[in-house]
């Protein structure tokens, strides 16, 4: 006791506790060491929490006490439900709110415009943790030069003129969906489930939109359907969904990152498709030396990238052979090509499918709106022979269809937690000092549901998007308040693709079937990398028109 006191200068209860502790350590060293480690960890947690809450440069930014560590952010990310909490936080704490030690969420219109458009903040460590296949890619890269180069290469593949060449592929996929749905409705009739109503029944549109968008992106990106609409059993989409959920759950969870590796085996599929396409082209070229293999070429995103790679190589700007340097320089190596096409698969499936499911859900809950949409589309396609699908040119300017999609993306944006960026220099945001390196979530949903910009913000009112019919003539839609596809240099490169796909699919379904809501269903949704209905199920009663 006296030695302890001499060595440490402690007295009283502290001296007694330490002496007792050393005694226990002598008797049971293993459990003693464990206790020591735990005690130190708890003390360290308290030290960090106190620093974070009271002394950190962000400590003056309002927010719940839960922001003392990343624990609660990790829990929110794990469940996928944090997007329901953040709006409450903003109501309580204001337009700038601290959500974790070094993360803030911003719901201010001018600040969001600066973040995304005028200053154009770089992407953050969150994106780096979502990196695919060990490769920088268009979505995750934080390097502005890399991004600029890659975007320049890829963007024309999403321009309207190239997309037009994909329309027949989308039509084919939609035809398969109609046949499958007809078959389901017929089967339900035969089983007597619908009391004898011909070709009527209930369909899980959430599942079908998901499967259809996978088949569409499979065909348009790789030239191969996954057959999900017909069979729903291809391993790649399932593996991909699992691994994306895992990556998203690991973003704020270092223990999970360390212990549970993400299974990226679905990338093999990308590599196989690139090789298969190369082989097919070579075979074609050998058979057809006159036209340089042009006859067997498919028009799809993979072919577009292969051609870009060919051009890069022909101009002497191809890869050098040093894998790391080539990646940093943004060269279109085979690995880059696989990664970007798989990225299209990831970014272009659940996003569009969830948006389509939500739009259908809002429409069946508002039957008079569904009727109005049907009338508009019937007029637009009046010259079509019976049974043919709407052409994109017939419906792309249909104002009510666009209004319904906008309204659904406003209420349920895919980036449900906002989009993360990193503060490049010390700055001030809505009156708060924000140090360089802070991660800032541009909270797009708060703008979408702000009554100053969108009166009666929680209601589905498509006509607010049609100025001459808007029930809010004194509140026209303002610029920089609606960002379903984000904005600035990192906006969604697939926006035109997604709008084309959504318009074609929704118009076809509305023209082909009558639809009714099935009441009392869950419609809550979760966000991992993108968003989806939590139950993966939304039933709609459908009947062939
Ligand atoms: C309704 C459908 C879609 C919505 C709402 C949507 C939304 C978004 C948003 C909000 C971002 C920005 C994310 C961020 O800044 O962190 C984004 C980026 C991106 N999206 Fe989409 N997306 C959709 C469909 C698609 C499709 C169909 C594709 C491709 C086929 C695609 C490919 C991409 C890519 C590659 C990026 C990264 C772009 C870059 O950083 O340059 N998206 N999307």
Automatic annotation (TrEMBL):
Keywords: Heme, Iron, Metal-binding, Monooxygenase, Oxidoreductase. Its cofactor is heme. Residues 284-294 have a biased composition (Polar residues). Residues 280-299 are annotated as: Disordered. GO terms for molecular function: heme binding; iron ion binding; monooxygenase activity; oxidoreductase activity, acting on paired donors, with incorporation or reduction of molecular oxygen. Heme binds at residue 492. Belongs to the cytochrome P450 family. PANTHER family: CYTOCHROME P450, CYTOCHROME P450 12A4, MITOCHONDRIAL-RELATED. This is Cytochrome P450. It comes from Entomortierella parvispora.
């Amino acid at each position: 006791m006296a030695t302890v006191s001499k060595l440490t200068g402690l007295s009283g209860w502290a001296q007694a506790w330490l002496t007792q502790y050393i005694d226990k350590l002598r008797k049971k060293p293993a459990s003693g060491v464990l206790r020591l480690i735990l005690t130190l960890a708890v003390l360290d947690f308290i030290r960090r929490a106190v620093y974070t809450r009271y002394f950190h440069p962000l400590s003056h930014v309002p927010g719940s006490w839960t922001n003392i560590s990343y624990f609660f952010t990790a829990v929110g990310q794990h469940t996928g439900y944090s997007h329901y909490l953040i709006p409450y936080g903003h109501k309580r704490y204001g337009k700038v709110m601290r959500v974790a030690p070094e993360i803030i969420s911003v719901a201010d219109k001018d600040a969001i415009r600066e973040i995304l458009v005028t200053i154009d903040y770089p992407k953050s460590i969150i994106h780096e943790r979502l990196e695919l296949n060990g490769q920088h890619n268009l979505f995750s890269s934080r390097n502005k030069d890399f991004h600029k180069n890659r975007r320049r290469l890829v963007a024309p593949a999403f321009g309207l003129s190239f997309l037009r060449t994909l329309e027949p592929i989308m039509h084919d996929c939609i035809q398969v969906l109609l046949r499958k749905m007809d078959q389901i409705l017929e089967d339900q009739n035969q089983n007597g489930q619908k009391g004898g109503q011909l070709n009527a029944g209930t369909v899980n549109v959430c599942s079908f939109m998901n499967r259809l968008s996978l088949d569409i992106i499979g065909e348009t990106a790789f030239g191969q359907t996954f057959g999900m609409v017909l069979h729903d059993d291809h391993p790649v989409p399932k593996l991909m969904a699992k691994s994306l959920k895992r990556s998203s759950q690991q973003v704020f969870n270092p223990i999970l990152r360390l212990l549970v590796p993400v299974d990226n085996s679905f990338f093999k599929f990308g590599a196989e498709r690139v090789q298969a396409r190369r082989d097919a082209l070579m075979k074609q070229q050998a058979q057809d030396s006159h036209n340089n293999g042009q006859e067997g070429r498919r028009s799809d995103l993979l072919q577009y990238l292969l051609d870009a790679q060919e051009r890069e190589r022909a101009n002497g700007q191809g890869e050098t052979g040093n894998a790391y340097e080539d990646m940093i320089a943004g060269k279109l190596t085979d690995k880059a090509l696989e990664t970007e096409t798989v990225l299209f698969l990831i970014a272009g499936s659940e996003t569009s499918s969830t948006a389509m499911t939500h739009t259908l859900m809002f429409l069946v809950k508002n039957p008079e709106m569904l009727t109005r949409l049907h009338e508009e589309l019937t007029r637009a396609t009046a010259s079509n022979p019976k049974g043919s699908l709407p052409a994109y040119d017939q419906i792309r300017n249909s104002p009510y269809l666009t209004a319904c999609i906008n309204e659904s993306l406003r209420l349920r944006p895919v980036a449900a937690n906002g989009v993360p960026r990193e503060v490049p220099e010390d700055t001030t945001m809505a009156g708060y000092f924000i140090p360089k390196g802070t991660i800032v979530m541009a909270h797009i949903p708060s703008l979408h549901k702000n009554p100053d910009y969108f009166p009666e913000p929680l209601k589905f009112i498509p006509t607010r998007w049609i100025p001459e019919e808007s029930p809010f003539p004194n509140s026209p839609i303002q610029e920089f308040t609606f960002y379903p596809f984000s904005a600035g240099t990192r906006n969604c490169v697939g926006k035109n693709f997604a709008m084309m796909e959504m318009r074609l699919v929704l118009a076809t379904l509305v023209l082909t079937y009558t639809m009714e809501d099935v009441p009392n269903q869950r419609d809550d949704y979760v966000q991992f990398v993108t968003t989806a209905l939590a139950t993966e199920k939304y039933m709609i009663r459908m009947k062939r028109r």
